[in-house]
Write a structure and sequence with these properties.
Elements: H1 4-7, E1 30-33, E2 36-38, E3 43-48, H2 57-60, E4 64-70, H3 71-78, H4 80-90, E5 99-104, H5 110-129, H6 142-162
Antiparallel strand pairs: 1-2, 3-4, 4-5
Helix pairs in contact: 3-4, 4-5
């Protein structure tokens, strides 16, 4: 007689795609890549009523998510130089109490807005961590300078010809 375990169906795969590697994990925190992880207890998330899609649901449910992260925590994680770039990128989203404030109300559910808000934070920090390329100024080619001066000479000659000849003055 065959064992029952052979006929037992294998466990089904979980529905949907696997979680994004940068998504928040309650045990670890938010992963910004390169081993940089911000613990979830360093982020304050609050829910409030939102404007936007959802119909009457918007009036009854608190689906808007507001993330608050202390800039000091982010600076300790990503470094002073990247934190300076983050401050420039964030602009008016940094409060007087030196916290980064992100709002997300683009989805109908609180969970989706929570994930979108965390993803926004991850993208903002990644952008700040990327050092901009230094601009190398280019030199104007000699031929272009020559063409410009030739054009000026021709224009000056045309204007010179429009003038009244010397000694031909009227009294």
């Amino acid at each position: 007689m065959a064992e029952a375990s052979e006929n037992t169906p294998e466990p089904a795969e979980p529905d949907g795609p696997p979680p994004h590697p940068t998504a928040a994990d309650a045990t670890r925190g938010i992963d910004f890549g390169d081993g940089l992880v911000l613990p979830m207890d360093r982020i304050a998330m609050t829910a409030s009523r939102a404007a936007g899609p959802g119909g009457q649901n918007v009036n009854r449910r608190a689906t808007r998510i507001t993330l608050r992260v202390a800039m000091a925590d982010l600076e300790a994680l990503i470094g002073a130089e990247a934190a300076h770039r983050l401050r420039r990128l964030a602009g008016g989203r940094i409060t007087e109490s030196d916290e980064l404030l992100l709002h997300c109300d683009e989805h109908r559910t609180q969970g989706a807005n929570r994930r979108a808000g965390i993803q926004r934070l991850v993208e903002l920090v990644r952008q700040a961590r990327t050092r901009p390329k230094r601009r190398i100024p280019t030199r104007t080619p000699r031929s272009v300078k020559r063409q410009r001066l030739e054009g000026k000479r021709k224009r000056a000659a045309i204007k010179q010809q429009r003038r009244r000849p010397r000694g031909d003055e009227q009294r």
